[in-house]
């Protein structure tokens, strides 16, 4: 039997949840059954990680952001690789792939990783990308929503339920389950960040963009320190356009001695091992990949009650939930976790059970492969 040829298409200019999802997926396809390649519009960190994993990568970075010559190059790539399935991720990849594949009779599937309204702060930018997305949906065959919350949005936008499958992002749990490394990671990173080994450390991992609500987190931490005379620390792992504003906020609140900016890092399992609690402050989240990573690492979670997060963070069971933007409630929840080891341990166990039953990479890969086969002739 010939192999199923699958081509994924993504911008790939950054390394976020969508990129990690593709890397997990294509790395675990059974090689005897699937031949896979990935088209990236940028030759960056994501492309190099794919190559390191032995995945074929086509980069189209010689063209400008919306250079129409990209259409011809993309169509040439489609015709050369001859995929049985084209699977796209992100507005730009969706738009160009739907146009480039017209007339090719290849089923085109799109994974919806986020809600566009929260991805684009500028009303003009949002209007443009919405037109690009909705104006080309007629050429898309099927949608994979990474949460029921995102599937609901698609249905509200007029996409029939029969054209939507909800498949949670899966992850390789093994890097987060290597318990023998935890003590070493904790000591090493706390030394690097100049944080006492016995201090209670709150952490988050996020892109520094408005939708992540990081100023709310900093305000909540300031309240915790002020109202409870707390000696806790906070580390923010990540980078982005809001970093300068966040650093200014920390200085204005007089928190320089207790807040650390760790920058963009690739050793996220180690960073989580250094933390005593993970705090998620987003205004919206399609699923919440970093929360799942924290839960897999047995780090207790405080999270915004938004989007796909509602589907696996259950209050006082798998984590504590607060309404988005409520810095007072977030501060109180953080304080509860800091003082109650019993609460932390109870939630950690339930959270790990939830992750292992719902978010494994094997389960995700199995469901996506099954979906692909439904569209084969």
UniProtKB/TrEMBL annotation:
This is Glycosyl transferase. It comes from Brevibacillus choshinensis. Keywords: Transferase. SUPFAM superfamilies: UDP-Glycosyltransferase/glycogen phosphorylase (SSF53756). Residues 15-174 form the Glycosyltransferase subfamily 4-like N-terminal domain. It holds the Pfam family Glycos_transf_1. InterPro entries: Glyco_trans_1, Glyco_trans_4-like_N, Glycosyltransferase_grp1. One of its GO terms (molecular function) is transferase activity. Residues 186-351 form the Glycosyl transferase family domain.
């Amino acid at each position: 039997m010939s192999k199923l040829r699958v081509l994924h298409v993504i911008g790939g200019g950054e390394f976020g949840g969508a990129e990690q999802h593709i890397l997990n997926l294509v790395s675990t396809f059974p090689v005897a059954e699937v031949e896979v390649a990935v088209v990236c519009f940028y030759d960056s960190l994501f492309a190099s990680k794919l190559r390191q994993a032995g995945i074929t990568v086509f980069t189209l970075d010689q063209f400008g952001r919306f250079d129409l010559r990209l259409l011809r190059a993309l169509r040439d790539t489609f015709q050369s690789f001859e995929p049985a399935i084209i699977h796209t991720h992100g507005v730009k990849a969706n738009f160009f792939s739907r146009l480039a594949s017209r007339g090719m009779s290849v089923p085109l599937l799109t994974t919806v990783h986020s809600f566009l309204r929260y991805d684009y702060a500028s009303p003009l930018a949002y209007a443009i990308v919405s037109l690009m997305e909705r104006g080309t949906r007629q050429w898309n065959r099927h949608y994979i929503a990474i949460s029921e919350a995102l599937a609901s949005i698609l249905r509200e936008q007029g996409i029939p339920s029969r054209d939507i499958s909800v498949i949670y992002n899966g992850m390789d749990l093994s890097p987060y389950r290597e318990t023998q490394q935890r003590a070493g990671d904790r000591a090493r990173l706390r030394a690097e960040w100049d944080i006492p080994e016995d201090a209670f450390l709150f952490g988050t991992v996020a892109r520094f963009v408005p939708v992540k609500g990081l100023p709310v987190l900093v305000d909540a931490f300031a309240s915790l320190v002020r109202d409870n005379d707390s000696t806790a620390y906070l580390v923010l792992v990540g980078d982005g356009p809001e970093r300068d504003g966040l650093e200014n906020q920390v200085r204005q609140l007089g928190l320089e001695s207790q807040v650390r900016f760790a920058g963009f890092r690739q050793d996220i399992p180690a960073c989580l091992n250094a933390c005593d609690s993970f705090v998620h402050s987003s205004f919206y989240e399609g699923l919440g990949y970093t929360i799942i990573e924290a839960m897999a690492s047995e780090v207790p979670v405080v999270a915004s009650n938004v989007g796909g997060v509602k589907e696996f963070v259950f209050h006082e069971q798998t984590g504590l939930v607060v309404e988005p933007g409520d810095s007072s409630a977030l501060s109180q929840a953080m304080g509860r976790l800091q003082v109650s080891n019993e609460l932390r341990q109870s939630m950690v166990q339930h959270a790990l059970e939830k992750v292992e039953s719902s978010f494994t990479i094997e389960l995700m890969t199995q469901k996506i492969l099954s979906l692909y086969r439904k569209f084969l002739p």
